[in-house]
Amino acid sequence: MQTWKWLYDPAAAFNWRFIFSVAIRVVILFVIVNVVFALVDPLPALGSISAYNHLFRGRERLPYGENAAVSYNLSLNQIDAMFESHVVASRKDDDEFRVVLIGDSAVWGVLLEPDDTLAGQINRLDYHTADGQTVQAYNLGYPIWSLTKDLLLLDYALDYDPDLVVWLFTLGSFGQAAQMRSPLVQHNPDPVEDLIKRFDVNQDPNDPRFVRLSFWDKLFIRRRRDLADLMRLQLYGVPWAVTGIDQEYPDYEPRLIDLPADDTWEDYTPQTLTTDDLALDVIRAGVDLVGDTPIVLINEPMFLSDGENSDIRYNSFFPRWAYDEYRRLLDDYSARYGWFYLDLWDGIPEADCYTDSAVHLTPECSARLGKLVGAAIVELADQAGRQDND
Amino acid sequence: MTLTHIIVFVAAALLYMTLLPQHWRKWALFIGSVLAIFWLQPPVRIDKFDFVFPVGTLALVTLAWLASRDAEQQWTREDVVSVAVMAACIVLVSLGRYLQEDFRITPSRPPALPQVAVMLISVLIVLALVDRLPVGRKRLLLPVALLILALFVILKTEALAEEASRWLRDMMGQPTHLARASELQWLGFSYVAFRLIHTLRDRQTGRLPVLSLRDYVTYAIFFPAFTSGPIDRAERFLKDLQALPGLDPARLTQGGMRIVIGIGKKWVIADALAYMALNDVKAEQATSTAGLWLLLYVYAFQLYFDFSGYSDIAIGIGQLFGIKLPENFSQPYLKRNIAAFWQSWHITLSQWVRFYVFSPLSRFLLTRKRKPSPTFLALVCQVTTMIVIGLWHGVTWTFVAWGLWHGFGLFIHKVYSDRTRPFYIGLRARPRLMRAIGIAGTVVTFHFVLLGWVWFALADIETSWDVFLRLFGMG
Amino acid sequence: MDRNDVKGKLRAFVLAELIRNPNYNLQDDEPLITGGLIDSFSLAHFGVFVEETFDIYIPDPDLTVDNLDTLDQMIDRIMQGAAS
Predict the structure, then answer these.
(1) Is B202 in Cβ contact with C59 (below 8 Å)?
(2) Which ranges constitute the DSSP H helices of B133-212?
(3) What residues of chain B, 358 to 417, have a C-beta less than 8 Å from chain C?
(4) What confidence score (pLDDT) does residue B136 get?
(5) Do B261 and A232 lie within an 8 Å CB cutoff?
(6) Is B425 in Cβ contact with C37 (below 8 Å)?
(7) pTM tops 0.95
(8) Does B touch C (3+ CB pairs < 8 Å)?
(9) I want to staple C31 with a disulfide (CB 3.0 to 4.6 A). Which of B21, B339, C19, C35 is the partner?
């Protein structure tokens, strides 16, 4: 536009001195910007600047997605920015009873529209606590099985003043090998290390899969990608707000009914699992982390196959022996620590309730789970309320 | 053009400025442009056609040169050398076949040398035959223009392009059921075609200066303007070509700044806006009227920043090489009426259509025995002109609708301004009122253009109509 | 061709056909189009008028506001056409 005319078409002619001085200044500025950027590391601060919940509505689940052009959503590793884009970052109403849901892709809601996810279904049912507060559930689930990833997100979620926490999981999240698989865990070594140390979790804080940035990695030019992610997260907010779409809904292959004759889980063959084999200490850390805030722990429902080899496996994910061991250990553990624990593993038994995987529900069955979980929320909320009053 | 293209062009410009002596510069632009059109051409799924299209461009341009020569113009040594240079460039590019992918400039492996030889020789024979046709050169102008127009219509009409693609696939022994109209991506064709038609028509009216083959080809395919314009005029281009300057700090900074501004507009602003701009999918998904308006506003600015940024880059690169390409945009969204908008949006295209459609058509109608009324004349000419501009973007009903929208807009403006002329002349004494009316005019004009984009942006007329209704809370 | 003769005919045409006000006191260097007296449609009229009156063909690309904004410019263009 012509307002830039002074720059490219000024009254006085350019000469070599001018070019030289501009070039020098550009170089100096470039170096300064990079060094200051590396020293200050402003990405978390930048991540907390968000147009979501201000210029347009917040997202109803954490940003996640591979095909951004279609889903208006993307995966990134900057948790501050992720939470700030979420509706949980909006102001809490006075009569709101804030419930945050932590968990895996089943909680996040693969193939479900935001209203049909577990959190959406609970909100639809319009629960109230005994003292008249409205239960408002927030979907803070995030795909990829890893309790450590859940713990990390729970840690951030506590900044948003929840009145109650619901943590859903299945065996897949408990494997020791699964803990470091989440890119979110790998790219956030500092808060994860802090959690490991604070709660004495049985994990290696020096795991080589942690991505730790050197000074050079923190230079502005090296972090273009992260900056672009922040930018894109904001930009995709507009189509999200206008269309209400935040994931791709492709045609999918239904979960397997006929299963392979394979009885291994992770690297284990049938044996007696111990608490060291499963990351039960991460659940314990989570319960400690929330402190006085009530927390509901839920073993999530899954598809129980009756096809080929279903005597060996419950479904494509888990062999029967491992899953049975897991339930037994979890039962013992929760009884020992007095957790509010719900085992819903066969709570939704119908085969056609499950879509592309043995833990992803259809909207109708998600609604049924909503009733089960909603009832538990109200129950625990009232229990906690009575204790407060006592 | 991608950022890589731009960086290479700028680097080439620096070498050109600092190292090349004056008499080599024209040759450098010529050879550079010939090579660049192979490099800029995107991949085409029909076998070898990303090589054939640039060759086709060169053949077509040479043919148009033959036809558009002045009656007295003879072959010169320079013209012969130019033919040889083009042939040599084509062979050189085709040798990329024997190089690693990283070192060839075509997007896919070029045809083998014998095939290239056959292609070249047949093109040369056809051109030689045309050159020797025992008819006056002026008789060639119309057929060549019609040939270009026919190609244009085929490429821009989906059904025809798909049929042509099927035919080409069949010829190349590729599965015909995969034929798509979109795969006939002949880069730069629409711009080159309009440049050539301009020279043919200007020869007819005796207005075209004498151009050597080298200068003519350089004009038609000048690489900064090859992919997306501007559409320069031959006589203006020739003037610059005859006085190509060397190293000049002012030109270097001005051109450089212009490129930087263009990159900022296109790759920062437009690409950011693209995330939230109206398209078919989002139009269908939008859940609220306000949301739909937002998508449309964003689209309007995305389109402007994308295209005007691109023009800035072309103009900037041209400037580095000493060619001052014409401006294509001049704050179009701030104009006070639709006529002024069209004098500042894609200026070189609307000028072209003004010279070669609007003006001849009005003159034709004015010389009829029964002179049309001024109102009727305005209606016919405006609407026809704008439909032509619409069809230039593609032969579809949506572009016709867009053309009609603007044609009627211009017509209504014309009727209005005829009636209010004394009022506006009287307004000069009251600058504040004039300013206020001007601002209102800008707002109305912008929204008229904005609603016009509904036809332009979407793939079919039903979607456009549906969006149009929804924007006003209906449908 | 005589410049004054051309001027007389052209002036009469511009006042009667384009401005449509024979009594308007038009200056020779007064901008017609950029001044808002006529619109650019009139350029085609002008082209036809010159062709019919003086038998001079002005190519369409020359019918521009820049070239033909004033009476003087119009006369210059006609004289140029007569000379070639």
Answers:
(1) yes
(2) 138-156, 158-172, 189-204
(3) 358-360, 362-363, 366-367, 374, 377-378, 381, 414, 417
(4) 81
(5) no
(6) yes
(7) no
(8) yes
(9) C35
pLDDT in tens, A152-184: 999 999 999 999 999 999 999 999 999 999 999
Written as one letter, the residue type at B239 is K
pLDDT digits over B33-67, tens only? Answer: 999 999 999 999 999 999 999 999 999 999 999 99
Let me know: does A98 contact A162? Beta carbons within 8 Å.
yes
**In chain B, residues 390-409 whose CB comes closer than 8 Å to chain A:** none
HEC secondary structure over chain A:
CHHHHHHHCCCCCCCHHHHHHHHHHHHHHHHHHHHHHHHHCCHHHHHCCCCECCCECCECCCCCCCCHHHHCCCCCCCHHHHHHCEHHHCCCCCCEEEEEEECCHHHHCCCCCHHHCHHHHHHHCCCECCCCCEEEEEECCCCCCCHHHHHHHHHHHHHHCCCEEEEEECHHHHEHHHCCCCHHHHCCHHHHHHHHHHCCCCCCCCCCCCCCCCCHHHCHHHHHHHHHHHHHHHHCHHHHHHHCCCCCCCCCCCCCCCCCCCCCECCECCCCCCCCCECHHHHHHHHHHHCCCCEEEEECCCCCCCCCCCCCECCCCCEHHHHHHHHHHHHHHHHHHCCEEEECCCCCCCHHHECCCCCCECHHHHHHHHHHHHHHHHHHHHHHHHHHHC
Domain segments of chain B: what residues?
41-208, 249-320, 332-471
A232 touching B (Cβ < 8 Å): yes
Strands laid side by side in the A96-102 sheet: A134-139, A96-102, A164-169, A295-299, A340-343
pLDDT at C54 over 60: yes
Tell me the mean pLDDT in the region B151-163: 95
Position B424 scores a pLDDT of 84
Per-residue buried b or exposed e for A149-178, using 16+ beta carbons within 10 Å of the residue's own CB = bbbbbbbbbeebebbbbbbbbbbbbbbbeb
Spatial contact of A306 and A324, defined as CB atoms under 8 Å apart? no
CB B283, CB B463: distance < 8 Å: yes
For residues A59 and A202, give the distance between their C-alpha atoms in angstroms, rounded to a whole number. Answer: 34
Count: domains in chain C = 1
pLDDT-flagged residues of chain A (< 70): 1-14, 390
ipTM over 0.90: yes
Do A118 and A162 touch, CB atoms closer than 8 A?
no
Q: How far is C47 from chain B (nearest CA, A)?
A: 7
Q: Where in the sequence is the domain holding C45, given as residue range(s)? A: 3-83
Is the model's pLDDT at B475 over the cut of 80? no
Q: Is B393 annotated as catalytic?
A: yes
Q: Which of these is catalytic: B5, B177, B393, B413?
A: B393
Query: What is residue B368's DSSP assignment?
Result: S
pLDDT at B262: 97
Query: Which among B86, B359, B45, B413 has a CA at the least distance from the CA of B205?
Result: B359
The tokens of B297 are what? Answer: 């506003």
- Name the token pair of A151: 């713990």
d(CA A123, CA A109): 15
Rg of chain C, C-alpha, whole Å:
12
Q: What's C59's DSSP letter?
A: P
pLDDT single digits (tens) B309-338? 999 999 999 999 999 999 999 999 999 999
Q: Which of B363, B406, B226 is nearest to C62 (CA)?
A: B363
Tokens 């020869």 map to which residue? B203
Specify the pLDDT at position C81. Answer: 87
Contact between residue A76 and residue A86 where contact means Cβ atoms under 8 Å apart: no
- Domains, chain A, in order of start with CATH, read 34-389 (3.40.50.1110)
Count other Cβ atoms within 10 Å, centred on residue B340. Answer: 18
Best mutation target among A5, A9, A14 (most B Cβ atoms within 10 Å) is A14
Pairwise CA distance, residues A159 & A173, whole Å:
24
